[in-house]
């Protein structure tokens, strides 16, 4: 462990303390990014450059998320001028009869789509189409965002029982059959998810009452609101735009199944569809003037995304230098993976069996997830699980599954503001750091319960 490693540890601790104090963590991240760059490169000027380079690497990595948020918001803005958004939400409100039912519908919808295609396309779809109806039924936007995060970023992704990308990485590194990790990971993440989803709703019951009393009508993206009744432009074409949007989204979902499209490719299909709908809507509503107005809609979407998500970039930059792959782009060749090195050091003092082994592996997984990926630490988690198991496949599978849960629930994720959780917060229109704080207790309790059950019954 070098001085730069210890500076990274201090940086992580300062970020956690600052978040607990309910303050923004941008300044601590900037300061420690500078100090680490200065010490590692041995240059004061290099330290200053590191602050910029870290943010640049983070911005490149996160831009696809920013863009999909921007496009969905811009698309909804382009149809809302006709009142089409209100027509679109109206049928859904029949199913969203109460906050509890709305919460359950959001969780199940996100879970089903995320299991087959990962949360990347699920969040924009559910966030744009179902969250506004849930909000109208009395569900606070924050609780809607929590439903999407728990069921998609956590429950579906951490188990990954359909696509099996996560258990495949863990099992391969541990040297055990993928079926063993898939089974245990599925059981443990189901326990975590059910616990977190239940606690999330119960702990925010007062917020629901408060939200209903205030009778606020907040749209999911907050920029996708229609005008007051009677102020719409060409309301006669609103039903056509609704049909266009509905059939386009159904076509996207069908294509995902039919052509086995998932992950980034699914986001590209959804984003391209949003572009085309926005172009058609602009021309249909504005005529020739639509050639100019489409730029306004796109600018509104981008401004919204960067206003809500922009502060995450320097924070992500700090945590990205903990990942050996992204650290090279910031600090140059030979840059260590600070997070992973710290994880290996901690693993040396963890016992091989028992509750300490389980919770130690959970913490290790969460540490590797702090880079905002969730998946990058799975090979390390699997390797350590295999080494600690002393030849027992059952122990290796359970420890690997626990570490996998920690990595993905934290960094995949529900507890890290600079991961794809920004997409959830952005599309719903809530502050991502506030969402992390709201997620913390339900997720931590869920992980603690599932780890206990895993150690006692599955090892």
UniProtKB/TrEMBL annotation:
Keyword annotations of the record: Membrane, Transmembrane, Transmembrane helix
Transmembrane feature ranges: 6-22, 29-50, 62-79, 100-119, 125-148, 182-203, 240-261, 267-285, 297-321, 349-370, 377-402, 408-433, 440-458
Protein name: Uncharacterized protein
């Amino acid at each position: 462990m070098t001085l730069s490693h210890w500076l990274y540890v201090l940086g992580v601790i300062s970020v956690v303390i600052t978040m607990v104090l309910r303050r923004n963590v941008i300044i601590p991240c900037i300061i420690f990014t500078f100090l680490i760059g200065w010490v590692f490169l041995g240059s004061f000027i290099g330290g200053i450059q590191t602050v910029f380079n870290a943010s640049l690497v983070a911005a490149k990595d996160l831009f696809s998320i920013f863009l999909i948020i921007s496009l969905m918001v811009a698309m909804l803005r382009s149809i809302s001028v006709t009142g089409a958004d209100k027509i679109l939400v109206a049928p859904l409100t029949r199913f969203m009869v109460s906050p509890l039912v709305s919460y359950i519908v959001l969780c199940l919808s996100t879970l089903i789509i995320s299991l087959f295609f990962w949360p990347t396309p699920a969040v924009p779809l559910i966030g744009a189409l179902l969250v506004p109806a849930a909000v109208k039924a009395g569900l606070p936007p924050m609780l809607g965002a929590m439903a999407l995060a728990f069921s998609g970023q956590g429950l579906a992704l951490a188990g990954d029982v359909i696509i099996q990308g996560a258990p495949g990485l863990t099992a391969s590194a541990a040297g055990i059959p993928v079926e063993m990790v898939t089974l245990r990971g599925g059981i443990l993440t189901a326990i975590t998810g059910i616990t977190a989803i239940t606690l999330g709703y119960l702990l925010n019951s007062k917020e629901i009452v408060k939200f209903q009393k205030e009778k606020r009508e907040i749209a999911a993206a907050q920029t996708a609101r229609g005008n007051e009744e009677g102020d719409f432009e060409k309301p006669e074409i609103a039903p056509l735009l609704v049909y266009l949007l509905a059939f386009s989204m159904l076509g996207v979902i069908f294509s995902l199944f039919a052509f086995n499209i998932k992950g980034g490719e699914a986001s590209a299909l959804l984003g391209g569809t949003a572009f085309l709908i926005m172009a058609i809507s602009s021309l249909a509503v504005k005529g020739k003037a639509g050639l100019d107005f489409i730029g306004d809609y796109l600018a509104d979407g981008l401004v919204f995304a960067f206003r809500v998500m922009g502060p995450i970039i320097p924070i992500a930059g700090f945590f990205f230098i903990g990942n050996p792959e992204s650290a090279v782009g910031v600090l140059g060749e030979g840059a260590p993976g600070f997070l992973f090195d710290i994880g290996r050091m901690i693993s040396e003092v963890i016992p091989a069996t028992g509750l300490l082994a389980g919770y130690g592996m959970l913490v290790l997984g969460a540490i590797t997830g702090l880079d905002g990926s969730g998946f990058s630490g799975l090979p390390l988690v699997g390797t350590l699980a295999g080494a600690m198991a002393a030849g027992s496949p059952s122990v290796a599978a359970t420890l690997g599954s626990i570490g996998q849960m920690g990595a993905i629930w934290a960094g995949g994720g529900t507890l890290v503001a600079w991961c794809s959780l920004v997409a959830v917060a952005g599309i719903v229109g809530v502050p991502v750091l506030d969402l992390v704080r709201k997620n913390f207790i339900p997720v931590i309790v869920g992980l603690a319960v599932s780890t206990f059950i895993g150690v006692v019954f599955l090892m």
